[in-house]
Amino acid sequence: MLPKAYEPQEVEQKLAEKWQNSKLFAAKADKTKKPFVIVIPPPNITGALHMGHALNNTLQDVLIRTHRMFGEDSFWVPGTDHGGIATQNVIEKKLAKEQHKSRHDLGREEFVKTVWNWYDECGNAIFNQFRKMGWALDLSDIRFTMDEKRAQAVYECFRQWWEKKYIYRGKRLINWCVRCSTALSDIEVEHEQHAGKLWHLRYKGEDGSEGIVIATTRPETIFADAAIAVNPNDKRYTHMVGQKVIIPLANRAIPIIADEAVEMEFGTGALKITPAHDATDYEVGKRHNLPVMTVINDKGKMVNCPEKYLGMDRELCRKETVKDLESAGLLVKEEKYMNNVSTCYRCHQPIEPFMSEQWFVKMDQLAAPAIAAAESGELQFHPASWKTPFVNWLKNLQDWCISRQIWWGHRIPVWYCRQCSAKGLTFATDQQGKEQLTKVSFEDGATPIVSYHQPEKCPHCGGHDLVQDPDVLDTWFSSSLWPISVFGWPEKTEDLNYFYPTSTLVTGYEILYLWVARMVMTGLDFTGKLPFKDVYLNGIVRDKSGQKMSKSKGNVIDPLDMTAKYGTDAVRFSLLMQAVPGKDIPYAEESITGARNFCNKLYNASRFILMNMEGINGPLSMPKQVTELADQWILDRYANAVKTAREGIEKYNLALTANTLYHFLWGDFCDWYVELAKQRFQTDEKEHVMALCVNILYGTLKALHPLIPFVTEEIAASLKPYVGVSETFLLNQPYPEFDRTLCNEEAVRKMNIVQGITREIRTIRSQFNVPPGLKIAAVITAKTEEELATVKAYESYIKLMAKVEDLTITANADKPKQTATAMFENTAIYVPLTGLIDFEKERKRLEKDLAAAKANIVSRQARLSQENFLKHAPAEQIQKTKDELAAAQAAVAQITASLEDLA
RNA sequence: GGGCAGUUGGCGCAGUGGUAGCGCGUCCGCCUCACACGCGGAAGGUCACAGGUUCGAACCCUGUACUGCCCACCA
User: What is the ipTM of this complex?
Assistant: First the structure.
């Protein structure tokens, strides 16, 4: 005998291995079939899986599995991402913790080797977790953004864009992370509200006058001031424009200029312009031809400033400057201020705007086709509300800074001749005594040679002393090529031809710009085709109170802990029940228990049906024709559940699919059909009923399999002999089709009457504490032909489900004495309960029902007396209202009689 | 500053024109021979607010408030 409760752990382990070993998830590359392809958002090799991965991958898994069952050649392409800065940070922390070493202690080569070792370790761990989760990825064929093929793709992209002049080198004010010591692109910068201060500083006039007062959050940058700016329309300052003032503590004169960028209302209306350390100021400086002077270096230390502050950290210098300004009497005011601080998306330290020569990609030509694709609707977003932000982002795109001053990543495929480029190259000796190229300046004459491998010789002088650019590419550079690189681009492979473009991209909205937009641009640029036509944006898994999960908040739920405790299916199903496109999911352990209970319900229902299979040999096919109400009804429910489940998948509304199947299985199949079937098991109808049970259950298992693959596969294995299936895996069987011929509205209507009357009797039983085992008598007086006929025909259902022994059915009986009364539509239900009735309780109950019925009469009558309603509303609606009025009137009459009876 | 979501019973959410559903929780009764991870029943909501469209609005339109997110060079 099977255990009472479903124990997922062993089952899942066993099946996960079986699936992988059978290569069940390998795409067949069957050219006769339509491919359905999803490329996985490759997880960074930074550590363990979190709930976000669980959600994102489960959604993809459901799509992959359903489309496979739809008969398509579905292929989910697995891989990982090297994760640039993120991974380098993880390894640096690890080194510091375990060996008290920095990456500089190891040197570049050794450090990179260390990360590769980490990749072996962590990559494996990730795929083991994938296997455990049962995700339909063929793990025998995986990709990595830094493996040889993907590196070739990166190089080819760089080369082509260099030739097209999309890639260029430029000196700009870029976002510099002092902690990570690298440049960042604009979207890698996050904006956080920090409690800071706003200082009002006086810049005295060159002529000794009072000068002007400005407001700043960054007093340490005054040494780099190039001007003071005011709004041209600001009458307070018009007379001062053109005059010169003295920078405090620096004693340098700068002009007062007028520029539209200055907000008159903010601070004092006067703004210090520091082109080298602020993006706005940089633009103003350009307009006014101001000199750019740097006072903070790449380490965040002060340079080019009065000696006192030289070498000081920027933070400390801020404090010191304020102190000294105060002593000098030039600090006019200090106020608290909520500052919008730019921070690094990886380490969350404040970003320093920094003048630097970097590699950029020109975006306008790349963006244009992407904008067109989104605007035309060729590219679809789910939910669609992301289209506008997507397009707007592309329209306001700045050039993409792609060089990073870190060690882990694709090295820029550019070389320099030490002879020809000598002036533009700066070398330093590292801690291992090796000479390293640290800085490249095209402005000073470095000449690039674009090449994947080290060129044999310099094309200019024939020299052999060539060095590679020290920078690596933005990690998103290789990610943006992912949909083509996974299939072997730039080679014209068969895979690329067959599987590209892919079908759907499933990812979080937080990387829509960082990743999705760029894949669209590169895909269109290199292939002329969109990499995917549907973008399904999933929400973020949050904690129960809607907070983002984070280690520091201690509210993280580990998906692996949860799968160990409740089973993978339970975790998957709990997420799917809430998976509405674009919506965040509040998540708590309690969310999982419901899903776990469902898996158990499914298991037990199956167990029950299997138990009743005893004595039945061979497969039972689905009966072609059914005449019994319960059979007609359950087939209608089943057909509709399948229909809605499929709709949910097509509309990317997996919550709809999950909920529909949940309620069909539990509410319709178990609570009513199987309960009714129990009595038929004792008759010669048994085989017929079993045929329906087992086939409907098997169909439901197939419909559920993409959502909860383990428990369904496990059950299906036992059920197969009874439905005549020889195929081992559910995944290779067709997804249930909606069968219109099974729909039967009349059966649903009749069953609804049976259920309604049953519930009324059960309520009476419960209200008057009738012992569950006690069979009772009941009198049903049906006032309409339909109800009367139905009750008469299916009195056995009511007797069974409501535990009624003696059922009297009449068209018009007087209310028996000493009974409880209930109404269902036009039918009165009397339950004689001599000695059991609490008259006071019954009176209260009846009065409540009476009030409700009276309210119904009033509202229906009001509606029916409106001429406009009768004129405009559809006939069907008018009839419905009339029926409701009649039912309410019948109820009032009946209940009133009952109340009189009680008195 | 711009944009996008959301506001439905104690909690978390479904529901796109015919006056409300689900899960959890609560309360009552049940170990009824598949399942107590269960069965039956009950209580609980003027669908944020104000206008408008409509015979009819949780649902469509306008505005307001609050919450969250994204974008943006008010230092």
Answer: 0.94
